[in-house]
Design a protein that fits this description.
By secondary structure, this protein is mainly beta. It is built from 5 helices and 20 strands. The longest helix has 15 residues. The relative contact order is 0.12. The chain binds (2R,3S,4R,5S)-2-(hydroxymethyl)piperidine-3,4,5-triol. The site of (2R,3S,4R,5S)-2-(hydroxymethyl)piperidine-3,4,5-triol has 9 residues, from strand 5 and strand 13.
Amino acid sequence: MRTNYVFIMLTLTLLSCSANQITKKIMPGEIWKDDRGLHINAHGGGILFNNGIYYWYGEHKDENSNEANVGINCYSSRDLVNWKFERVALPVVTNNDSSDITKGCIMERPKVVYNQKTKKYVLWFHLELKGKGYKAARVGLAVSDSPTGIFKYIRSYRPNAGKLPLNITDEQKNSQITVANFPKSWTPEWISAVENGLFVRRDLAGGQMSRDMTIYVDDDGKAYHIYSSEDNQTIQIAELADDYMSHTGRYVRILAGKHNEAPTILKKDGKYYLITSDCTGWTPNAARMAVADSLFGEWKELGNPCVGADSNLTFKSQGTYILKIEGKKDTYVFMADRWTPKTPIDGRYIWLPITFENGIPVLRWYNEWSAL
Ligand code: DGJ
């Protein structure tokens, strides 16, 4: 009788586990079940490693909508394979339609960083206001005393209002060319004007557009917001204040007019590597990489870091974060999303190891692998 019971319980446990949990391997593109047996719902995510635990924050997605109807989810794990659903760390607001984060807004690409000085967990994300498509192009901010939240929503805005980028030239700053000069976009003249700060000047008073984003904390504890700006034409890198709760107004434009989104970053041997994507909505494209000795540049383009089948499609995914494994030399996980826009909840996670060949990051496909 007892043997039967143990056997049934064991079978039930195994049935609720996914293959990766049994093998303890990361299996890109498979269904990844949480402790409840549900496919993990943390898209466009990022990871915070805190006191021996990995916290994965990501967008909750619905069966058939990309709108935020629930909020930002938080999961925890000690091995990067078995994930416990902690809670909705930043829920949408359901009783106030005028809230920035009212149900039906868009919340994307959440990233949480821990501030040593204030002992606060700071959550930044891309916010679009309800019913306005992707026009608002704001960054949102929330804060918590604990990694699992619930985070308190603070505000959303377009960063660096009234501030010019540190690397703008006098000619770009003083140019009288405006968007009104261009009845048509995408002409060579328009592209050159964009490269030369057309949208920076347009958005100077109200702040720079901020869509796909990540947050990077450097070795000296300074944090940076890296985001697709200027109608997704240019990446901007902006310094955050010491408490990570606002922008200082110091920022640069990089890869101007090069049409990048999905920024992810790593640092190795004093060099910064930025891996981004082209902008093709939910459809995958080839990743791009750039390198710099300093976050504020100069940045040099290196081309596609992916190698092998589907390398021109980032293995049918789009990057969201690079996790450096603390305590393991040169171990980095490239985290990406395989979007399924018709059934967003079904999106898969493509996590791959970053290797270094001739000192340069390379991404190859693995059906299964271990990060720890
Ligand atoms: C691609 C972005 O990377 C996603 O985060 C999302 O904004 C989609 N575009 C929307 O089309």
